[in-house]
């Protein structure tokens, strides 16, 4: 079934887990035993609504920072932190892997509507996964990328006729885009998504 994503809302700061979730026990429980958490933090950015709408920079806005946790049995999870507290714990180490693939000095960001991950290198937007390659091929300029996302999402933002007509399927959070059920992710001025048809199924479980 064809997948159709719609931009439906602006996200709000402050929806992280309570302070108790920030304790190591939460990560231990998630992986089923003692864990080692990396000291390396990966900043993760999401596509900016202002950039989609008008081309205003930056291309993406900081959403959370990620650390990799490794269990005694070798399984890994990613701890998301925002505003000084744990916001989510998700299985896998996507953020760390994409940061390594992006290389030094690059900004990694996600287009959540299609679970596409990119590296921003100067004036170039370079794909980091298959979904991103489906959008930009081997890479495009920032201006070319803006034209692409503007065409896809600009008329579906909050306040648009699309949203007023209820075509966004109700103002629901993003449903588990290919790795983790984000609920309302951390961040301000970003894009929340609902998939209208052919839900993007998750391969990652999370606390949300």
Structure report:
With 208 residues, the protein is an alpha+beta fold. It has a domain at 17-152. It has six helices and eleven strands. Strands 2, 3, 4, 5, 6, 7, 8, 9 and 10 form a nine-stranded mixed β-sheet that branches. It has a two-stranded antiparallel sheet with strand order 1-11. The longest helix has 12 residues, at 142-153. The two termini are 26 Å apart. The relative contact order is 0.23. The model is unreliable at 1-23 and 168-203 (pLDDT under 50).
Approximate shape: elongated
Low-confidence stretches: 1-23, 168-203
In terms of DSSP E residues, the strand content is 25-35%
Tell me about the biggest sheet? 9 strands, mixed
**What's the SSE pattern?**
EHEEHEEEHEEEHEHHE
Count of DSSP strands: 11
User: What number is the mean pLDDT?
Assistant: 74
Q: How does the helix and strand content classify structurally?
A: alpha+beta
Summarize the structure.
This protein has 208 residues and is α+β, with helices and mostly antiparallel strands. The chain has helices at residues 24-31, 49-54, 94-102, 130-136, 142-153, 161-164; strands spanning 4-10, 35-37, 42-47, 60-71, 76-82, 85-91, 107-111, 116-121, 124-127, 140-141, 191-197.
Task: Name a few traits of the molecule.
208 residues; alpha+beta; 9-stranded mixed sheet; 6 helices; 11 strands; elongated; disordered N terminus
Question: Any chance you could write out the topology, listing elements then pairs?
Answer:
Layout: E1 4-10, H1 24-31, E2 35-37, E3 42-47, H2 49-54, E4 60-71, E5 76-82, E6 85-91, H3 94-102, E7 107-111, E8 116-121, E9 124-127, H4 130-136, E10 140-141, H5 142-153, H6 161-164, E11 191-197
Parallel strand pairs: 3-7
Antiparallel strand pairs: 1-11, 2-4, 3-4, 4-5, 5-6, 7-8, 8-9, 9-10
